[in-house]
Amino acid sequence: MKKFGVKSIVATGIGAALFFVLGRFVAIPSGVPNTNIALQYGVLAFIAAVFGPIAGLLAGLIGHFFIDFSYGWGVWWSWVISSAFFGCVVGFATSKIDFESGEFGASGIIKFNVAQIIAHLVAWAGLAPVLDILIYGEPADKVFVQGLVSAGVNIITTAVLGTLLCIAYTAAIPKKGSLKEEE
Amino acid sequence: MTNLFNYIDRPSPIHRLTGATKFVCLMLWSFAAMSTYDTRMLIGLVIGSMILFKIGRIHIKDVSFMLGFTVVFLVINSVMIYIFSPHHGTEIYGTCTYLWGTSGRFAPTAEQLFYHLNYLLKYLATIPIVLLFVCTTNPSEFAASLNKVGIKYSVAYSVALALRYIPDIQKQYHEISQAGQARGIEMTKKASMVKRIKAASGILIPLILSSMDRIEIISNAMELRGFGKEKKRTWYMGRPFKAPDILAMIGCGLLILLSVFLTFINGGRYYNPFI
User: Fold this and answer.
1) Please, what's the largest Cα pairwise distance for chain A?
2) Which DSSP helix (H) or strand (E) runs through B259?
3) Domain residue ranges of chain A, discontinuous segments joined by +
4) CA–CA distance, A135 with A77 (Å, rounded to integer)
5) Is residue A55 a contact partner of residue A48, using CB atoms and an 8 Å limit?
6) What is the pLDDT of residues B46-98, one digit of tens each?
7) Residues on chain B touching A37 (C-beta within 8 angstroms)
8) DSSP label at residue B228
């Protein structure tokens, strides 16, 4: 597992800041009122994959907390916890992918996407609605529909943006054995 | 620092409390309001939060922008609840009283309206407190205070870093976006949705890759200064607890006890006037 050192602390902070800026200011309206296409999960998945589960968990927690906070509608804990959970699960599930070696081929793309799809489904169609019911006593039909819609949207944006980011990031790292001794 | 979280520097007893106290009180208060559906307690909390709002010397016009979001959010959620479960109230309270002689799936029942009233009260009890916290807590002090309430300082430092770099990242996003627009990439409402998403991802890749460089630079600087060597650290913005801080925390702690107590008395989270 990736260690939670100084670099991870900084990555958590910057990751949370990116999550916040994308979630708060870079909103692309989806057509349904009050629901924006959430680009921030692509970034969160990427941060979690590169820096590990603890960074993913905290970046999701802090970033989402600040978004709720800055809107002033009260902190919607069930969804904040689900964001943190998503970051954590993606971090664990992708811990086998070694980004530093500069290799992120087809197997990396598949691993990353399987991880994010499972994490999104569990977080938004499972954890968030259940917490909504337990904490806020909301009706089940409403929260499960909300959860499934956001799971679907988030899976698509993460698949596009997250995968692109992983490819772009690994492409910028020099590959192992890319230097050759002069003959 | 830009005034992102709407901090208003205006002397008041609430401003004088430390960030740690306000954070603990916010948590306790919202937990108390979250856990109970007892109408009497919720009304009490609503009145209490309004009074605190006055003591904090925050005016409605300071927060009208944020209140706008809240109202939209509240209306949409209430309508969704009604559309998906028009009989949620009946399930909770166990009785079914149709109003005005109507019947059917979407007919209003007294129980459903009472549930909606409680739902609204829950919001009214928490929102002023959240706004009060946002307006009276200096963000830097907030990060320092997290450490004080028992959160590890590495985590508190992540929060501080996030607060520090949000304006920078925002500015950088804006710059990249303008550079793209100067080259003729349409980002406004005129472009189709797919095009806008594509254009937005075109900004995000340079933004995030440059953030990765930023992570490298900051973590090197911190490591050079020996960050993380000691078990404890001091905070520039930290302040010691005083008597009002302790009183405020005890007061909010009592609210939780009251909420638990009422749950026992009512035999559940809901106060039921229908039986």
Assistant:
1) 72
2) helix B243-266
3) 6-171
4) 9
5) yes
6) 888 888 877 777 777 777 777 777 777 778 778 877 777 777 777 777 777 77
7) 197
8) T
Listed by number, the residues of chain A in 14-43 with a beta carbon closer than 8 Å to a beta carbon of chain B are 14, 16-18, 20-22, 25-26, 28, 31, 33-34, 37, 39, 42-43
Taking a contact as any Cβ pair under 8 Å apart, which residues of chain A between 144 and 183 contact chain B?
A: 145-146, 160-161, 164-165, 168-169, 172
- DSSP secondary structure string, B19-72? HHHHHHHHHHHHHHHHH-B-HHHHHHHHHHHHHHHHHTT--HHHHHHHHHHHHH
What fold, for A6-171? Arp2/3 complex 21 kDa subunit ARPC3 (1.10.1760)
Residue A9 has its nearest CB partner, among B88, B157, B214, at: B157
Q: Check if the interface score ipTM surpasses 0.90.
A: no
SS3 content of chain A, % helix, strand, coil (to 5): 75, 0, 25
Question: Using CA atoms, how far apart are residues B56 and B52, in angstroms rounded to an integer?
Answer: 6
For the stretch A102-158, pLDDT in tens is 677 777 788 888 888 888 888 888 888 788 777 777 777 777 887 888 888 888 888
Is residue B180 a contact partner of residue B156, using CB atoms and an 8 Å limit? no
- Contact call for residues B124 and B117 (beta carbons, < 8 A): no
Q: At A110, which amino acid appears?
A: I
Which of helix, strand or coil describes residue B94? coil
Residues in A touching B201 (Cβ below 8 Å)? 39, 160-161, 164
**Considering CB atoms only, which of A11, A26, A139 is closest to B200?**
A26
